[in-house]
Amino acid sequence: MSFFNELKRRNVFKVAVAYLVASWLLLQIVDLVLENINAPDWVMQVFMLGLAVGFPIAIIVAWAFELTPEGVKLEKNVDPDRSISRHVGHQLNRGIIVILSIAVVFLLTERFRDDMLSDSDTTGADTQQTDSDAPPAESAVVSNSIAVLPFRDMSAAQDQAYFGEGIAEELLNALVKVDGLHVASRTSTFSLASENLDIPAIASRLDVAHILEGSVRTSGKQVRVTAQLIDVSKDVHLWSETYNGSLDDIFQIQDEITLKITNALKIQLGNKQLTSASDLLTDNAEAYQLYLRGRHLWRQRNSESLHQAIELFKQAIALDPNFHRAWSNLAVALVNLPDYDRSYNRKAQFEHGLEAANKALQIYPQSTEALIIKADYAVSNCEISEAARLYENAIVFNPEDPTAHHWYAIFLDMVGHTSKALEQIQTAHQIDPLISAVLGIEAQIYSNMGDYARAEELLRTAASLGIYGGSLHNVGLNYLLAGNIEKGKTLAMDGWAGQDPTYVEGLPLFLSAFTDPDQQDAFLEYIRQSDKENPYLVYDNTALLTMLGSPYVFEYLRQQDCPSLSTEVWSKPFREQRKTPEFFELMERMNIVEYWREFGWPDDCASLDQDLAECP
């Protein structure tokens, strides 16, 4: 008997066909299920690999074994006269026919569903065209738009996540500077990437047409970077490449990836040259590694991580004293530290941060981070006009930095330029819609304008994103201002993690004073006894006093050289106090009146003492 006939006799061909048809059907079903549960791509890849490995095993088993009435036996142990291979072959034929029938039904169902959806979309579009006599609305997604996902860590030790994040962030920073390209913000992109969403879901949430993803693998001084650009709507890879080299080549790799992306998206650069990554960073690979690790730790925002980040930035500076980004990030980390470790004096840390910021600006005068630190320092010393100029310069140098718009909005709200503050915070929100602190400040501005419904909406969104900038406590305070007293008192007492316990201790007294003027004396006594050296507590207490419309604010803040002024002084409950000479004197002492004379009087200038104000 020939080998071919033996294969037929042992049903090897039929087993192969049955296996392939069954595998195809299983893949269609599994793909449908995984798509509906938003499973990651690797699940399907593992399933396909398992089926591929199983195919040769099935062939070997069909050749070496035979099904008998007594069970499965080795083919060589089966008496040919008692073989039932022909019967098994008929059974396999019937099985193949059944599987093929199911596959046909599945295909027809899918085709029918697609036709229905297509007809529905066409009908909807035709109806809209008839009703409005206008062309269909364009998609909200900009064609030249991209999000850069953090590059996956493929190193054996899985300890290079900071490196993948850093490369993605620097690529994002480079792409932001390309005219005609909309780039999704780092905060929004990285937060969605951590949710394990698939590529289409991330693109949909960020309203972008393209996704850049990749991976990094390091081994000693060697690095491998893989990057691929995906057109989400077409589900195709526009470009993909793998780079191998040493860590010293990392800046050249980043520059090449940036250029390849602009070419793939057909963006015309004209005579404008892309700035090399090494020009904005450092040509020292070890310093760059330390800087990326510091950035990774700084983003974790806790006392321990900030201490470690500060040390890493200092080490990077020791290797390259002209590494301006290390200096500016050191400045930010030093100023942030008292927010998470109250054992550090805020004024002293500001002094240290200012030194680092000035060093960064000596090397690179357009350092946005350093300019923001200098502006905040100027505010803390009541150099209000200088702070305004620094904030505006920071925005001119980097208009896509949400932090610059965010901090400038807080400043503008503090000095009573409410409409300008709203413009700035909405710009920050548009650049990066998932920063809870930005939403919290936007809510505060709307609250000062008396739009408590919009403020509540923003505060609830902020609370869902994180504790910084929004909480149910803040929603409760907003309810109080809107007149919903009982609901406001309940939510205001919720507080939030990380709040000063002294502030939480005074909340019941404040809530009693808010609803019963006779209880205000008890709350004022608590304020008098509170720590006046704690700038955070002073700011919070000032906000509560303004909500009560209490004139004690002026006496309370008179004890500070440069008061920590709450933006709530521009809220409706405090309007009567703004008419007093004491309020104008406070504004003069903080040099805000001098600022008004240069930059314009506040939006609600009519609420000031008209004998002193110079309203237009």
What are the low-pLDDT stretches, counting only 5+ consecutive residues below 50? 113-139, 268-273
How many strands, what sense, and barrel or not for the largest sheet? 6 strands, mixed
Structural class: alpha/beta
User: Helix count, per DSSP?
Assistant: 28
What is the average per-residue confidence, as pLDDT, rounded to a whole number? 80
Shape: elongated
What gyration radius follows from the Cα positions, in whole Å?
33 Å
Distance between the termini: 108 Å
Walk me through what this model shows.
- By secondary structure, the chain is α/β, with parallel strands linked by helices.
- Helices cover 63% and strands 8% of the residues.
- It has helices at residues 3-9, 12-36, 41-64, 85-132, 161-176, 186-193, 199-206, 250-264, 277-280, 285-298, 303-319, 324-340, 346-363, 368-380, 384-397, 402-414, 418-431, 436-448, 452-465, 472-482, 485-492, 501-515, 520-529, 535-548, 552-558, 575-578, 581-589, 592-599; strands at residues 65-68, 71-74, 142-148, 152-153, 182-183, 208-219, 222-231, 236-246.
- Strands 3, 4, 5, 6, 7 and 8 form a six-stranded mixed β-sheet that branches.
- α5 packs across α8.
- The radius of gyration is 33 Å and the shape is elongated.
